Amino acid sequence: MIIIGHPWIKSNRFFKIFAEKGFEKSQADDIILLEPLVDSHTLAIHCQENDITFAVVVNTLDDALFANALGAKYIICEEDDALMIQPIANEYLFDTRILVLIQSEKDISKIARGHIDGVIFAEAIV
After folding, report:
1. With a threshold of 0.90, does the pTM exceed it?
2. Residue 122 DSSP class
3. What distance in Å separates the CA atoms of residue 117 and residue 13, rounded to the nearest whole number?
4. How distant, in Å, are the alpha carbons of 5, 70, 108, 121 from that of 104?
5. Over 45-114, what HEC string results?
6. Sheet containing 74-77, strands listed edge to edge, beginning at the edge strand earlier in sequence
7. Over its length of 126 residues, how does the chain's per-residue pLDDT go in tens digits?
8. Which is nearest to 40 in space by CA: 69, 19, 14?
């Protein structure tokens, strides 16, 4: 299971951007965070074309399918959405990993029991 943002585990920060000028403010090891995909698909294409690691916040299966097709490393979603998306991601062998945004350490085992790829703490997002 992937655990991002926990103080015991070193991980890259997720840097939220809304326009191309946001890339300039990010650091080389940041994972660019885009949301929503309908408004940021051109940024996702830019990331794909320039080998920039990125994640997308999604709340529909369609957005998850597009995020995977665009080369997102991670999809971040709510638990209910992850429970719907994860089996499809497994069936189609997504390269993209599904993460659930959590607030508390006690949510980790609950998400693991749902066979979701991983979790991300809000503290990992800037």
Report:
1. yes
2. G
3. 18
4. 11, 30, 8, 8
5. HHHHHCCCCEEEECCCHHHHHHHHHCCCCEEEECHHHHHHHHHHHHHCCCCCEEEEEECCCCHHHHHHHC
6. 2-4, 118-121, 97-102, 74-77, 54-57, 31-34, 14-16
7. 999 999 999 999 999 999 999 999 999 999 999 999 889 999 999 999 999 999 999 999 999 999 999 999 999 999 999 999 999 999 999 999 999 999 999 999 999 999 999 999 999 999
8. 19
